[in-house]
Amino acid sequence: MAKHLAILNRVAAEAIFSGKKKVEGRFSQIKIAPFGKVGRGDSVLMKVSGEDISGQFLVDRVFYFDHPTVDEVEYIKKRYGKQLALPSSFWIGKDTINYITLMFIKSAGKFIIAPQVKKKDLRPWVVLDTTNFP
Q: What's the predicted TM-score (pTM) here?
C-alpha cells in the first residue's frame, strides 16, 4: 500500500473532511500521477497549497479512464458528479480530457500534528517514497 500527497483547494479538502465529497477525481491531458499509480488501500495525504498537510483519506477503489470518449465523460459527470462535488463550471472546456482517475474515499480524517514531506515543486500529486517521506 502506497502513500501519496495530493494538493487540493480548500473547498475540496473541507468537502472530503465533511463527507460531502466521496470521490476524488484527477483529470489530465498527459499521463501523470495518480493515473496508474494509486490503488485500493493507499493513503492520500491532503495539503492545501501553501499550507501544512491537514489530513488524509484512504482509497476504497479506483477507476481509470484512458482517452475516454465524450459519452464516457458525460457518463462520469452524470453518475459521479454529485460524489465528485465539483462546481458545474469545472466541466466547461474539458473536451480534451485524456486521462481520468476516480478514487473512491473509504474514510478521511484531519491530523493534529502535520507530517512533514519534502516537496519543492508544483506537481499536484506525488507518490511518496523514503526520499520525501520518512
A: 0.94
